[in-house]
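Dear support,

We are seeing what looks like truncated structure output for some complexes. This example has two components. We would appreciate it if you could run it in full and send us the complete token output so we can diff it against ours.
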Amino acid sequence: MTVTAPQGFRASGVTAGLKPSGKPDVALVVNDGPSDVAAAVFTTNRCKANPVLWSEQVMRSRRARAVVLNSGGANCYTGPQGFQTTHASAELVADKLTIGAGEVVVCSTGLIGEQLESDKLSAGIAAAAEWLSADGGPAAAEAIMTTDTRSKQAVRSGEGWTLGGMAKGAGMLAPALATMLVVLTTDAAVDADTADRALREACRLTFDRLDSDGCMSTNDTVLLMCSGASGVTPDEATFTELVRDLCHDLAQQLLGDAEGADHDITIEVVNAASEQDALDVGRAIARSNLFKCAVFGKDPNWGRILASAGTTNAEFEPGELDVAFNGVWVCRGGEPGEPREKVDLTGRAVSVTVDLKAGGESATIWTNDLTNAYVHENSAYST
Amino acid sequence: MTVTAPQGFRASGVTAGLKPSGKPDVALVVNDGPSDVAAAVFTTNRCKANPVLWSEQVMRSRRARAVVLNSGGANCYTGPQGFQTTHASAELVADKLTIGAGEVVVCSTGLIGEQLESDKLSAGIAAAAEWLSADGGPAAAEAIMTTDTRSKQAVRSGEGWTLGGMAKGAGMLAPALATMLVVLTTDAAVDADTADRALREACRLTFDRLDSDGCMSTNDTVLLMCSGASGVTPDEATFTELVRDLCHDLAQQLLGDAEGADHDITIEVVNAASEQDALDVGRAIARSNLFKCAVFGKDPNWGRILASAGTTNAEFEPGELDVAFNGVWVCRGGEPGEPREKVDLTGRAVSVTVDLKAGGESATIWTNDLTNAYVHENSAYST
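Here is the complete output from our reference environment:
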């Protein structure tokens, strides 16, 4: 039941006709309280979609009663008319729920640069309000899918409180958030500061370390709504850890469903002088098309890993680097190590370890391989 | 006759057997003087190949008498044994030509992480020295090819002096040089300072603005050798302009032969607050896999261009950006402009113009689309 697993939430997912496929495309999640504490993290892309511009304003109060989400159109680069559509959506939700428009977060996903059909959207929102229910979580999760092949949901239980979540995103997954909409709900009674800190820490270690194709979206939003309906206030460390754990689960579901990918690649950079150094090296590797093509070809091409590491300013000596594929150290001290024939890359999961021998810090980045299917899907998406 | 077009140069290209295909793989270019002035630019990758480590030392004197180049192996990440192979190559060339090893630049290209077969290389160098001739330029240009489908050569004539050049490179083309070996020769009588300034300026505006796949090589070398045999000393502006023009020609040949590419894309960023801003935006676009896939799909997806621009710190207002594909302004003021149906992307040449409306500076970046053929070629290259 995901976002409706915690007490105090209702949700729905309906078909408004925004998607040519006729699949569900409008979702609504409502927090019935008693608390309306919320926290959100948005894309750091400077070219933000209209719903992000709107929702950033809403979230200044750190309170939200509802979130309305649509697939079938990102409402991005659609100017004042597009902003008007977003605003009208929030007003309509507010009207149906007898709350204020300033309490309604709006999220959109789909093609950018085209106006949403506001009549269809309005009708969809009205229907979504009618269909709200305490077991509407799965329907909502389905309605936010775009090129996703399956809906992404997760639930975690604390002591006397629950955390639920749904996510969408299958391409444009990159740091500073993936193309991704995530709604988390909890019935824990937490204050706005705690919710904000927990969400930021969770994002930093999970969604921000997904780098599927290096492309940063314009619509990314991660929203956490807290109803307080359980009456339980967990200690902050416990709360933060459960939020992080649930975000990790959703992030891995996103990675596993990335557009056209054959392999899920975990890049662990160890013995770095700083966490930032480890991240820089991990990201440089995750963004190398040559490396990603090699993994698609089941080729443990460690030379392309060193060539990527060499583009960073991280502290290391090129002649000291070790690299392993799936635990086989094919590069030792910047030279050929164990025979590459010992590496088997036929499975979906690929692990790459890079030892910088420059300190005690480490970081993990998750990415995918670059495949013919990725090229196909992204050359045909808007046509 | 390219590198042997100017007076004072001999060259050759032979088959040493380093390439499984049995095609030519060792080239030698010799400057018979009277001058031995030279300038070079190397990859800025910190993980440099052995020939680059050697050649950087050679070029400290800003003089060179010969360059020996091999395809069939990059001699990169091959440790002390690999460096020994490079050193022995230079010694052998020096021995054959009765010059010093410190006057011999060495370049290698091919797969990284594997030792070169030094016996074959030595035999090849001996043969190349035998075959040196004043019309050996084309043979040399052919011997440095890897995945190139054709050799790249160009010649320019000054008043009483000549400039020739050859290049190889078809993948891993990225800023701070492409995977690319370039040898330029001239019989102009220029001093080392002039040669160095002219070469750096030319590289900055040509090779450094190629960004085929965002991957920076470990072996990139651009070498300019000046024999002074014409006895003519052109003024520096004229000399610099001709070097730039010839480098532009070679860069466009590299772009046109990029691995698996269907389209050559020129990204011009205009009305930027600074040249660096224009470059940052241009590079961000050139590195967006989603944009590159869209061009492959003949889709003028300007949303992906704005999304890329939004990841930079360049000065601009997102709501003011204009974007054109092949002269059709599909985005005006951050919103849909002329109908995308007016854009025809069936030809190989695609031009993208982004107007930042933030100043008077501009810059051009050249890239390619991302295709199934690119993925295929780079997933199969080493296997």
